[in-house]
Design a protein that fits this description.
7-stranded parallel β-sheet, single chain, 5-stranded antiparallel β-sheet
């Protein structure tokens, strides 16, 4: 049986959304490694000036997604740059002689999915693509801890960090909007949840999703690609019915609630000390996420560091390229008003 997009000749597009550190990159890496011969193209949108996720994904070395198939938008959130940046990037893919079988878009953790999906209603895009589905990746342990529940203590804490907040946490609204637009929800880091906890997290998520939306649990992003690709949801046709907090706002919102900056560091003698400093920096007021690619003395491979909340992960992903400049660069993302000097003092070796 042919799917609707196959019979229409349209290229299917899967939008993968999710909060900072939820596990989107792990999920996409797994899709690439299990593409079953499909030619995939990725559009990656990272908040901040450096798309570190693109570097990590290029390291996967999978034949079904070559380096020219990974396109980055690094000068702003997709939903803020639809006309100037995103549409031309998408058209670049669509005009290739060897077109992709499927396009996967990873949004920034701060992106609202709805304005992006509405871009697929543009005539020059709609005739050639269809939004096959929106997959929201959720950090299971974070939801279990109530980080996105209607938690008065958390809201108050964030108000104290940012005096301009006179409403519910913007993080919570972004989280709920991602769920409201989803066709499928993947609860990541299931290995850190007890069985009863996973059920409680799924019950909480179902309060924000539409009735037909399925919720899966995943460990290290391992979800069968066939479950994620081929949902045939044609989201562009019903996106206006998916109600979100920001429906009353203009599509071109901003990210004034958040700051990010890049920190270049010297090479490190070993990963452990740097990961320890990243852990310490994550404990500073307002710091949400730290990630990057670093050089380790005496090692021919790049070391990837990703930290969010109380967790810091690190792994060697691939050898440095012969023409590649070896460098150590971290991106720090936090609430508006974070102190770059204090954060750098912690991260930079003494």
């Amino acid at each position: 049986m042919q799917s609707n997009h196959q019979s229409s000749g349209k290229i299917p597009v899967t939008v993968i959304t999710g909060f900072l550190g939820a596990g989107k990159t792990s999920l996409i890496r797994h899709i690439l490694e299990n593409a079953n011969g499909k030619r995939l193209a990725l559009i990656i949108n990272e908040f901040g000036d450096l798309g570190v996720d693109g570097e990590i994904l290029r390291g996967c070395g999978d034949a079904t997604c070559s380096e020219e198939d990974v396109l980055e938008l690094t000068n702003g959130c997709i939903c803020c740059t639809v006309a100037d940046d995103f549409i031309p990037t998408l058209e670049t893919l669509l005009e290739r002689d060897e077109k992709p079988d499927h396009i996967v878009i990873e949004t920034s953790g701060l992106a609202l999915p709805k304005p992006l999906i509405k871009a697929f209603q543009w005539p020059q895009v709609r005739s050639r693509t269809t939004v096959d589905g929106v997959v929201a990746v959720v950090d299971g342990p974070a939801v279990k801890a109530g980080m996105f529940a209607d938690d008065p203590a958390l809201v108050q804490q964030q108000r104290e960090q940012d005096e301009s907040l006179d409403h519910d946490s913007p993080l919570e609204e972004v989280f709920e909007d991602q769920l409201a637009c989803a066709d499928m929800v993947v609860v990541s880091k299931s290995d850190l949840l007890e069985e009863g906890d996973a059920e409680a997290v799924i019950a909480k998520i179902r309060q924000e999703t539409r009735q037909a939306v399925k919720t899966l649990t995943a460990y290290h992003g391992k979800v069968d690609a066939a479950l994620l690709l081929g949902l045939d949801a044609a989201v562009e046709d019903d996106v206006d019915k998916r109600e979100t907090h920001h429906d009353s706002l203009e599509d071109d919102h901003d990210h004034d609630d958040f700051d990010s900056f890049i920190l270049d560091l010297p090479s490190a003698p070993a990963p452990e000390a740097l990961m320890s400093r990243v852990m310490e920096a994550l404990g500073l007021d307002g710091v949400l996420r730290i990630k990057g690619v670093v050089e380790i003395d005496g090692k021919d491979a790049r070391h990837v560091i990703q930290g969010v909340g109380p967790r810091v992960d690190g792994f060697y992903d691939r050898p440095w390229g012969a023409e590649e400049t070896r460098q150590s660069r971290l991106v720090v993302i936090g609430l508006k008003g974070i102190d770059p000097t204090a954060i750098e003092t912690v991260l930079r070796p003494g």
